[in-house]
Amino acid sequence: APASPARQLLFLPGTCPLSLSLLLSCSQSAVSVPRDFEGCSTLRKYLGQLHFLQSRIPMGNGQDAAVPVTWTEIFSGKAVTHEDIKYEQACVLYNLGALHSMLGAMDKRVSEEVSCTHFQCAAGAFTYLRDHFPHSYSVDMSHQILSLNINLMLGQAQECLLEKSMLDNRKSFLVARISAQVVDYYKEACRALENSETASLLGKIQKDWKKLVQMKIYYFAAVAHLHMGKQAEEQQKFGERVIYFQSALDKLNEAIKLAKGQPETVQEALRFTMDVIGGKYNSAKKDNDFIYHEAVPALDTLQSVKGAPLVKALPVNPTDPAVTGPDIFAKLVPMAAHEASSLYSEEKAKLLRDVMAKIEAKNEVLDQFMDSMQLDPETVDNLDMYNHIPPVLMEKCAALSVRPDTVRNLVQSMQVLSGVFTDVEASLKEIQDLLEEDEAQERKLQELLGKVPPAPGSPPGLAEVSKECSKYLELHEKASFTNTELHRAMNLHLGNLRLLGGPLEQVRAALPTPTLSEDDKQVLQNLKRILAKVQEMRDQRMSLEQQLREMIQKDDITTSLVTTDRSEMKKLFEEQLKKYDQLKVYLEQNLAAQENVLKALTDANVKYAAVRKALAEVEHKWNTTVQTLVASYEAYEDLMKKSQEGKDFYTDLEGKAAKLLERARAACQASEAHRQQLLERELKKQPPPRPTAPKPPLQKKPPELEAGGPEAAEL
């Protein structure tokens, strides 16, 4: 049993007793592991924890915390001690390979895959030991011994696949090649056994091992030639069949000679094989001698069978968390690991900067291109909007549907306004006529009598009436323009209001719709497809960028850095950064595709120009129509308000005009009476007429002279 280093580490200053006690428990379990798969797991876990430990504490040969490690050498039985933690790892690794080989040999071959896997795992353990640890620790860890073990394990793994191939009745040539590869592995093992250094290391067991390996070489060479003969039989090459079976028989005889002293199961297998090969040879020779008479070629003239290696040494990863479990020294991170982690973070940042520079350059080109095209994927195809009444218009239609008298009320209001307007205009016109008539009578009187000073008691009311009438006329003039504009606005909106208040089908029919040919529709669909590709390219690029950022943010290799030698840091960085290669490839493909997509979009946009112009014109008309209808609805309340204001204004003006008309009439009557008085007064001042010769009788005076008009002065 080894003196585990964990016991002595418990006394190192600065170490965690709990972590070291867990390591001691692993060590004790690894010393006497059960011979099953659980034993393999125990050894792998202890190996990993030792790897974590030696990367944090200087326990190597000649280092400050080195402690003696003792194990018993397998061949000599001597206790070997080294003050090096790696010796502990090497011994555990050797035992891992030995245990896998035992489990592979103990398996009942119910499933060939289980035995094959054990032997490949054993080969992997010995390979890792040979390639990563010094060979001077002990005799059983020399390069020759480890190479011997590796080939023995691979040979037995290939044997398992050979058994399965024969049970599955695979093609003869394939079985021959698999068997030939078994021979190749055992030949390599035999060369290692024949080495003088190996012979001195192994001692007495070297001869037994060599004899057994040679027996296997002859046996599996016989199996390979047996199946080559079966292939020749399938190809009807009867001469070759004879020589292959004869060679198989010769090699089997050599194997039988070397098998003396082997267990009865081996002897029985050899006898069974002899029965098969002997029977095949005798039958083939007899058939060729009496039936086919083909020449039997020399064996060395035939093509040699090339082995087909179907197995390999399965690699050992001492830091695989699935095997080692949690790192019990995870909280103990050396400063060198932190420094290395910072360097790795800079490498990640550099990678991100390079990628983002390419992305931003492409995005800038894409944005400029799309801005110049003025193509909005959401509006390039707006044909669907022509199939529906817009919500804003539906809202107005719904509002008018609950007010069915809208148009009638507006028309009636305007009619009332027009009536009042007409009445006011008639009253003011009558006042004007009265004033003009009075003025005309006044001029006639002055022409008849000359300029006569106004007599006392002349009516002053006409001047006030005239002044007030002028004021009303000015107001009426201004209101008349407003009234005209109001009527024009009503006539403009009345049709739209009737449309909005009618059936929705009529509203939809009143809205313009585009008419596209099949070619136009095809052009539009092609443009939409390419714009969708552009958006897909954008979305994929953003997604890949986000994935890269998240992956870089979560990428923490501190644990790996702790267990990696400083000289291997650069290599570790390169290996770790490879995980980003696939994302980088996807991004490169995305960026490279942009040029082709934009070229296709340019061609599609050229074809779309005419369709775009036609759609723009229809859309403009459609928007104008919608805005006009909405404006008509919104103008209704304003029209009603202004109509009411007009009615109120003219009603008030009508009352004032009616009163002014009464005053005008009264004033005109007073003025007329005043003029009659003046005329009579002037007539009285004139002398009586002189006698004259008889004249014809006078005619009857006209009515105007009867009233005292100005013509009376001429008489």
From TrEMBL:
SMART domains for the chain: BRO1
Pfam families recorded: ALIX_LYPXL_bnd, BRO1
Low complexity biased stretches: 705-715
Broad class of the protein's primary localization: cytoplasm
Subcellular localization: Cytoplasm; Endosome
InterPro entries reported in the protein's UniProt record: ALIX_V_dom (IPR025304), BRO1_dom (IPR004328), BRO1_sf (IPR038499)
Residue runs in coiled coils: 421-451, 527-554
A GO-annotated cellular component: endosome
KW Coiled coil (keyword) present: yes
Biased segments, Pro residues type: 686-700
Signal peptide interval: 1-21
Protein keywords: Coiled coil, Cytoplasm, Endosome, Signal
Region (Disordered): 671-715
Swiss-Prot/TrEMBL GO biological process terms: early endosome to late endosome transport; endocytic recycling; protein transport to vacuole involved in ubiquitin-dependent protein catabolic process via the multivesicular body sorting pathway
Compositionally biased residues, Basic and acidic residues: 672-685
Domain annotation BRO1: ranges: 1-366
Name of this protein: PTN23 phosphatase
Encoding gene per record: Ptpn23
